[in-house]
Write a structure and sequence with these properties.
This protein is α+β, with helices and mostly antiparallel strands. The chain has four helices and seven strands.
């Protein structure tokens, strides 16, 4: 495989990130939300995964004090099943640890078994349910978390 890189998301990346977003989620974020996250939210950390100068995935998280929350993570459908999501998640986890985070959490659809299995590989465990969390179909979310210290 050609050189794979993960780097900080820039405003110029948003158009390509939107291709990943729209292909991945039934209720995609808008360009404006991404722009606001990377320019105005001092707690937000967003990274893109590039292969041959093409953005094939991204991850976002908020870090507040010693807590991190993954806001979203996605890989273009044509690149799934190659463990790229694991590499991207590992990068986010290492970034959080490097910034002194002691606990990381996220929400995942109850039906997204593939993602749940991946998160378990990194030590995340279910911590609760958010009833009707997803606005597109009111599906429940499992809150998963891990202590990093």
């Amino acid at each position: 495989m050609a050189e794979l890189t993960i780097r900080k998301m820039e405003i110029e990346d948003i158009q390509q990130v939107m291709l990943v977003e729209i292909a991945s989620f039934t209720s995609p974020w808008s360009e404006d939300i991404f722009k606001q996250e990377i320019t105005e939210n001092r707690h937000a950390f967003y990274f893109v995964m590039e292969l041959e100068q093409k953005i094939i995935g991204y991850v976002g998280m908020w870090i507040v004090l010693d807590d991190a929350q993954i806001t979203n993570i996605a890989i273009l459908p044509g690149y799934r099943g190659m463990k790229l999501g694991e590499k991207l998640f590992q990068f986010a986890l290492q970034t959080a640890i490097g910034r002194g985070v002691s606990r990381l959490s996220l929400e995942v659809r109850v039906t997204n078994i593939v993602a749940q299995k991946m998160y378990r590989k990194f030590g995340l465990v279910p911590g609760g349910i958010r009833k009707g969390y997803y606005t597109d179909n009111h599906e429940d979310a499992i809150v998963m978390w891990v202590n990093l210290t």
